[in-house]
Specification:
This protein is of the alpha/beta class. The chain has two domains: about 10-155, Lysozyme-like; about 175-230, no CATH class. Helices cover about 35% and strands about 10% of the residues. The chain has helices spanning about 35-40, 85-90, 110-125, 135-140, 150-155, 175-185, 195-205, 215-230, and strands spanning about 10, 15-20, 25-30, 55, 60-65, 70, 90-95, 130-135. The strands form two sheets. The chain has a six-stranded mixed β-sheet, with helices on both faces. A two-stranded antiparallel sheet has the order 2-6. The longest helix has 18 residues, at about 110-125.
Length: about 240
């Protein structure tokens, strides 16, 4: 692992193998455990899990796996046609108690450390903003992290992820829920479980209400996201 001024420590994990694809994504996670426990698990060969980076709530960045290697962070997952998300992504774990441990806003120092690290990764690998996602986006049937309190808007300010559409120019164009689901798949999601994937979409794009129900607002948000992408306003 190369030296990087944004990395405070190296703690190599044995849990990696060679990639089967080019890097085109970043997946953000929370640990749902304390920092030292997370570090121990991510470097335990028996656990068979890892990530490229772990960021503490105090903002300390630890590199666990070299970026050119395939870390084992996403599990069974899917995004924009890719089922081996581990081969095409860089995984970043954020120390956080998660929903099971008392869900709360993410620490400012942690996000302050994430922003420049993510900016460097996105630039180095030419990663589209649409491919900076949460674990819940790529594994909606299994995961809900980093959750509804994650500050996506902060990342969007630096053009590190897509912003939530502010103007819903054409409203709700979908004639029924089936058309919405097909559009959701086109945007990138695995739609195998319709309720769970709608929750995942809401968690990312309309976090103030997560009920798994397709309504006019989320249909309009999805349509605007697709319209912006197809017209070249986002990447």
């Amino acid at each position: 692992m190369a030296d990087d001024e944004l990395v405070h420590a190296h703690h190599p994990s044995p849990n990696w193998n060679e990639r089967a694809g080019a890097i085109s994504m970043v997946v953000l996670h929370y640990t749902e455990m304390e920092h030292e426990a997370a570090l121990a698990r991510l470097t335990d060969p028996a656990a068979e899990v890892s990530a490229h980076y772990l960021i503490s709530e105090a903002g300390e960045v630890t590199q666990l796996v070299a970026e050119d290697k395939r870390a084992w962070h996403a599990g069974a997952s899917f995004w924009r046609g890719y089922r081996d998300v581990n081969s095409t992504s860089i995984g970043i774990e954020l120390t956080h108690p998660g929903h099971a441990g008392g869900y709360r806003p993410f620490a400012s120092a942690q996000i302050d450390a994430l922003v420049p690290l993510l900016a460097r990764i996105v630039k180095a690998h030419d990663i589209p903003r649409a491919n900076v996602v949460g674990h819940s986006d790529v594994a909606p049937t299994r995961k809900i992290d980093p959750g509804e309190l994650f500050p996506w808007d902060r990342l969007a300010e630096y053009r590190l992820c897509l912003p939530r559409p502010e103007k819903l120019e054409l409203g709700d164009p979908f004639q029924n829920d089936g058309a919405f689901m097909l559009a959701l798949e086109r945007f990138g999601y695995d739609i195998t479980d319709s309720h769970k994937v709608v929750e995942a979409f809401q968690r990312r794009w309309r976090p103030e209400r997560i009920d798994g129900i397709v309504d006019g607002e989320i249909r309009a948000i999805l349509f605007q996201l697709l319209l912006d992408r197809d017209q070249g306003r986002t990447r």
